[in-house]
Amino acid sequence: MEKKASPINRENAVISIRDLKKSFGSLHVLRGVDLNLYQGENLVVLGRSGTGKSVLIKIISGLLHPDSGEVNVLGLSVGSLSDRELLQLRLKVGFSFQNSALYDSMTVRENLEFPLVRNYRNLTRKEIDLAVEDVLDGVGLSQAINQMPSELSGGQRKRIGIARTLILRPEIMLYDEPTAGLDPITCIDINNLINEVQEKYNTSAIIITHDLTCAKMTGDRIMMLLDGRFERQGTFEQVFDTDDERVKTFYNYNFTD
Amino acid sequence: MAQKSDTPADSSRKYVVGRKLDALFLDLYKINRFLGRFFKELVLPPYEFKEIVKQCYEVGYKSLPLISMTGFITGLVFTKQSRPSLAEFGATSWLPNLIAIAIIRALAPLVTALIAAGKVGSNIGAELGSMNVTEQIDAMEVSATNPFKFLVVTRVLATTIMIPVLAMYTGFVGMLGSFININQMEQTSLPTFFVGAFSSITFLDIFSSVFKATVFGFTIGAVSCYKGYYSSKGTEGVGKAANAAVVTSMFLIFIEEILVVQVVAALR
Ligand SMILES: Nc1ncnc2c1ncn2[C@@H]1O[C@H](COP(=O)(O)OP(=O)(O)O)[C@@H](O)[C@H]1O
Ligand SMILES: [Mg+2]
Questions:
Q1: Is residue A144 part of a domain?
Q2: Which of A55, A59, A82, A103 to mutate to test the interface with B (most CBs of B within 10 A)?
Q3: What are the helix (H) ranges across chain B?
Q4: Does residue A251 belong to any structural domain of this protein?
Q5: How far apart, in whole angstroms, are the C-alpha atoms of residue B95 and residue A49?
Q6: Which residues from chain A sit within 8 angstroms of residue B144, using beta carbons?
Q7: Is the pLDDT of residue A125 over 90?
Q8: Which residue range(s) make up the domain with A223?
Q9: How many whole angstroms from B178 Cα to the centroid of ligand 2?
Q10: Do B143 and A165 touch (CB under 8 A)?
Q11: Residues whose Cβ atom is located within 5 A of ion ligand 2
Q12: CA distance A169 to A175
């Protein structure tokens, strides 16, 4: 189930983070994070729950402010953008939420239209429909177009959530625990979808997970968040070839249930 | 884009004056920013006409049955209870005047606002609270779609527009209830009733009543949206937001009622 090699441009870092720190009160979540995401790459961020994985990508998309450090996304320093510039940047950065975050008062079609219609106000009905059908087809859920989110399964909700970000044609995708709470077969489907997105839309992605199968299947490179820093990185084998107890515990917990 | 979850207290949770007082100042700071953002987004295009109309409909539709019933019964019972005292002076012909003053000046806006605070306020608090908890608001934020404008501005506008309309309706239904009782007991005709009723009502009464209802409407919308939009994460956040929306709205409505009454009395 090893991932096949993707065309990655290691000259061009689409996200680069230097010495990022973030605390909540006395809780020091991120203690100096350094990270480069290269163009075309799927980067997996591993870590136990509560290590600050979600906080990291929320900082990247400007939902949270860092205490200190540099966060550059597509050449722009996220901290110093005007409101307008931040909106422009957000169009290029897709965010797939852990619990999908579908708008539960809207149908699937309305969910998908929402970001499109509200960012591009002069699209015709036909253009909107085409875009919706295209992304829906891309995630293999054309038949669900008129359903409400509450009628969908967990895996389907994930797909719609991913489709809703793809409709804006992002250059970067941030996946927050894409396989959490799904059965093993659905997990594999979602992992395949993540790789398809990378190929079809030429995205670079950060995939946050604590699921090692997901990491193995989708990651071109893996970084492991330990005590607020990236202490290990490389291929799957390189990351886990260590005597570090924390890493071994993480590995064993994943493969012995 | 203003940050939602990120406030100064997040990064340094050291209490400067004391826990409670600090929380109060933080709240004041957040309310100030909330109102500032509201008025900014209110005037800046694009305007969400379709969503505003939808929310107006929601506000009206949700509270209409309860308001109709309460208004009608208030008018009817109030008339019935006032009659004996007036009868002592042989002044039951003054009933329409008395009732009109009570209903138009005080009861209609207040009753409408209190019911809407319970019905609409809790609804907005819970709705936005659960959108916040399930990260739907964050999802709107990261797709550059300005959730504040779409969710908050539309709802605050809807309550500000609809509560005065509903208050006028409550006044009308209340007068109807009163008329039915008076017609039954004193055989007063509808024209006589209305001539009596409106002989004592001035423009200032109607204006201050509509003004009050507008203030109440804004309060319900702003408080409920604030409580929902900034609800704490976690499932209990939703219930807390709905509850706080109702309690805080009602509290402020009473305070505003007292203030407006003082001002109008001074103008009279
Ligand atoms: N907005 C916030 N306010 C306070 N604490 C937070 C906030 N967001 C996250 N945290 C805390 O930061 C830590 C890391 O959270 P998170 O990034 O969600 O972990 P995970 O790695 O499981 O995604 C947790 O202990 C969480 O309680
Ligand atoms: Mg998380």
A1: no
A2: A103
A3: 8-11, 19-43, 49-88, 95-100, 108-116, 122-133, 136-142, 147, 154-186, 190-199, 203-229, 235-267
A4: yes
A5: 70
A6: 87-88, 90-91, 115, 119, 168
A7: yes
A8: 9-92+171-180+203-257
A9: 60
A10: yes
A11: A 54
A12: 15
pLDDT of A47 higher than 80: yes
Residue A86 lies in a domain: yes
CB within 8 Å of A129: residues ≥ 6 apart: none
The CA distance from B149 to the nearest CA of chain A, in Å, is 11
Window 1-60 of A: residues touching B by CB (8 A cutoff) are: 23-26, 58
Name the pTM for this structure: 0.89
Q: Which two tokens stand for residue A18?
A: 């230097």
Asked whether the beta carbons of A37 and A14 are under 8 A apart, the reply is yes
- Cα–Cα distance list, B12 to A73, A190, B6, B260 (Å): 27, 39, 11, 40
Backbone region of residue B132 per phi and psi (left: phi > 0; alpha: psi in -120 to 50; beta: other values): alpha
Please state the φ and ψ torsions of residue B68, each to the nearest 5 degrees.
Answer: -60, -50
| Number of domains observed in the structure of chain A | 1
State chain A's mean pLDDT as an integer: 92
For chain A positions 162-221, those within 8 Å of chain B (CB to CB) are 164-165, 168
DSSP 8-state code for residue A106 = S
> How far, in Å, CA of B179 to CA of A88, rounded?
61
- Evaluate if residue A56 carries a pLDDT over 90: yes
How far does residue A27's CA lie from ligand 1's centre (Å)? 9
Model pLDDT, residue A67: 94
In a domain, A109, yes or no: no
The token duo for B227 is 């409580």
* Interface touch A63/B5, C-beta < 8 Å: yes
Say yes or no to pLDDT of B246 above 70: yes
Tell me the CATH number at A29. Answer: 3.40.50.300
Q: What is the pLDDT of residues A112-124, one digit of tens each?
A: 999 999 999 899 9
Chain B residues within an 8 Å CB radius of A64:
3, 5-6
B145 touches chain A (CB under 8 A): yes
Q: Does A51 contact ligand 1 (Cβ within 6 A)?
A: yes
Cα B4 to ligand 1 centroid, rounded to whole Å? 15
